[in-house]
């Protein structure tokens, strides 16, 4: 989700995609589930037929420990959208909106995501060493109020608002931070509390007017790490997200080398023996590893994700060409994936499928083949592609390709929410196609593999419907799922959120009687409880 376009030489090849669908680099990261507590609803296990017995008697005889029963269908897929604040790309649409207008825009975006069955938001909260949240470390963002250091009026904390409203809709909220950018060209004046003015020794001016923190400075690493951990400690977030900006793109500095001579000479004076390129990569690697460790030490359930440039190096795999991020951005993204430092890896694969030199399926298959420790690989795709007539249907196709390559843990991150709001045909192609039904975020068993308890429901029966109302009596349960099946039909499901906790199931659908109902709960890291079937005969008069 770069702030400026990155152009690459392209070729076209019709039919290339079909050969590449044979790629299979899937890794299984299925969780080993723990045994749930005794449920409070009248249920029986669904994996074997049971003798018909009285409901109360069955409930009393349920043992304290039972074998885990998997849900009848797999409903896991990560579906996220980036929401950019830099240059007011997405939110807020202008930097002079009132507090109420900012909230209204945020609600509109969340409602569109909910309507289109997304389950995660990646919100940019630190576009240029500033804050779209209450911070004692960095100033309020120019992009929020039109003046660096100025708080919203009337006062509110935008991040708290986004978290609360996202969670109410069953969506994760990931904070997106730029770790090294100190000032963006669209940020207008440099505020008095900007790091450019408070610590000029830590930043470097680039030819295009941006200011960049020096990744080789220990003080910069300490500062950016403190910003990350301040958010992790104080806010109920689900993830921390970095994009592709480590050392800046060469174009930002007029193709000149990054001006880090002082920190480089300091390294050499200390006895450093690495080449300058290896030293720069080590600076970034050390910071990425540190952030991963610090986050887990504070809150083990918070995911750490990075969305690097989509190509690691030209020729990897064969036939791929384009910018070399290893040499230009000094980002060894393959290493981070190989080491498992990050929980989800989102390479920015922003090119059409037919663009052979940057082929979407070839690159995604290669990145997944490098996923040797079984983390999540969820590609970033460019919704703006469908602004061109020749790319109609491209996004739905890329989602389906991703599912084929990432069968165990599918997911996609969409750059950015803007086209989804403006392009009705794009939104319909997703809602009526790959996102027809909702999904839960795939579990991350290396973070947590303990199954939550079975959810509790209030049940009301009418002549036509069975109404289930989720009673949230456990704060660790994030969502719940109702599975139901009509006689001689496939299982269907409905995911319930905090703001949509009630679901009515018709007793008869297309002349078929309701046959089975079951429920699960979902915790913060995507674990589902053991599946429990509710005895329908005990619900009917």
TrEMBL record:
Note whether Signal occurs among the keywords: yes
User: InterPro entries, per this entry?
Assistant: Divisome_Glycosyl_Hydrolase, GH, GHL10
Query: Gene3D superfamilies of this UniProt entry?
Result: Glycosidases (3.20.20.80)
Entry keyword Metal-binding: no
Q: What keywords were assigned to this record?
A: Signal
> Which SUPFAM superfamilies does the protein's record reference?
(Trans)glycosidases
Task: Please identify the protein, giving its name as recorded.
Answer: Family 10 glycosylhydrolase
Please name the source species. Answer: Christiangramia sediminicola
């Amino acid at each position: 989700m770069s702030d400026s376009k990155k152009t690459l030489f392209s070729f076209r090849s019709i039919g290339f995609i079909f050969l590449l669908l044979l790629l299979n680099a899937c890794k299984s990261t299925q969780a080993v589930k723990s045994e749930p507590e005794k449920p409070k609803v009248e249920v029986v296990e669904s994996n074997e037929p049971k003798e018909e017995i009285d409901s109360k008697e069955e409930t009393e005889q349920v043992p304290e420990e039972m074998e885990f029963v998997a849900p009848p269908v797999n409903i896991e897929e990560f579906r996220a959208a980036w929401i950019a604040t830099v240059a007011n790309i997405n939110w807020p649409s202008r930097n002079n909106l009132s507090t109420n207008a900012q909230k209204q825009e945020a609600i509109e975006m969340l409602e569109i995501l909910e309507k289109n069955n997304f389950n995660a938001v990646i919100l940019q909260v630190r576009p240029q060493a500033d804050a779209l949240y209450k911070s004692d470390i960095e100033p309020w963002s120019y992009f929020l109020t039109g003046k660096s250091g100025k708080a919203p009026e009337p006062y509110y904390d935008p991040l708290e608002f986004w978290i609360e409203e996202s969670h109410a809709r069953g969506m994760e909220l990931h904070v997106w931070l730029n770790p090294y950018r100190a000032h963006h060209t669209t940020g207008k004046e440099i505020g008095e509390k900007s790091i450019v003015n408070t610590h000029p020794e830590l930043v470097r001016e680039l030819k295009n007017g941006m200011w960049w923190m020096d990744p080789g400075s220990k003080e910069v690493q300490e500062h950016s790490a403190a910003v990350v951990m301040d958010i992790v400690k104080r806010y109920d977030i689900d993830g921390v997200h970095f994009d592709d900006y480590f050392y800046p793109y060469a174009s930002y500095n007029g193709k000149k080398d990054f001006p880090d001579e002082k920190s480089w000479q300091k390294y050499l004076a200390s006895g450093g023996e690495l080449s300058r390129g290896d030293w720069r990569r080590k600076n970034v690697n050390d910071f990425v590893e540190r952030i991963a460790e610090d986050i887990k030490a504070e809150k083990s359930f918070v995911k750490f994700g990075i969305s690097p440039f989509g190509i690691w190096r030209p020729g990897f795999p064969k036939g791929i060409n384009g910018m070399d991020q290893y040499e230009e951005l000094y980002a060894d993204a393959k290493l981070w994936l190989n080491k498992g430092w990050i929980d989800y890896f989102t390479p920015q694969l922003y090119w059409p499928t037919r663009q052979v030199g940057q082929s979407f399926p070839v690159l995604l298959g290669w990145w997944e083949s490098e996923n040797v420790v079984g983390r999540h690989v969820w590609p970033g795709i460019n919704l703006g592609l469908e602004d061109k007539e020749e790319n109609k249907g491209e996004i739905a196709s890329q989602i389906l390709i991703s599912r084929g390559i990432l069968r165990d843990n599918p997911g996609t991150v969409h750059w950015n929410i803007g086209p989804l709001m403006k392009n009705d045909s794009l939104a319909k192609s997703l809602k009526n196609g790959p996102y027809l039904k909702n999904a839960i975020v795939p579990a991350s068993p290396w973070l947590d593999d303990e199954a939550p308890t079975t959810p509790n429901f209030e049940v009301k029966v009418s002549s036509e419907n069975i109404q289930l109302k989720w009673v949230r009596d456990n704060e660790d349960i994030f969502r719940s799922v109702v599975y139901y099946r009509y006689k001689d039909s496939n299982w269907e499901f409905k995911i319930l959120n905090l703001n949509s906790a009630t679901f009515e199931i018709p007793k008869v659908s297309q002349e078929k009687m309701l046959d089975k109902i079951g429920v699960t709960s979902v915790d913060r890291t995507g674990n589902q409880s053991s599946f429990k079937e509710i005895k329908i005969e005990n619900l009917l008069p």
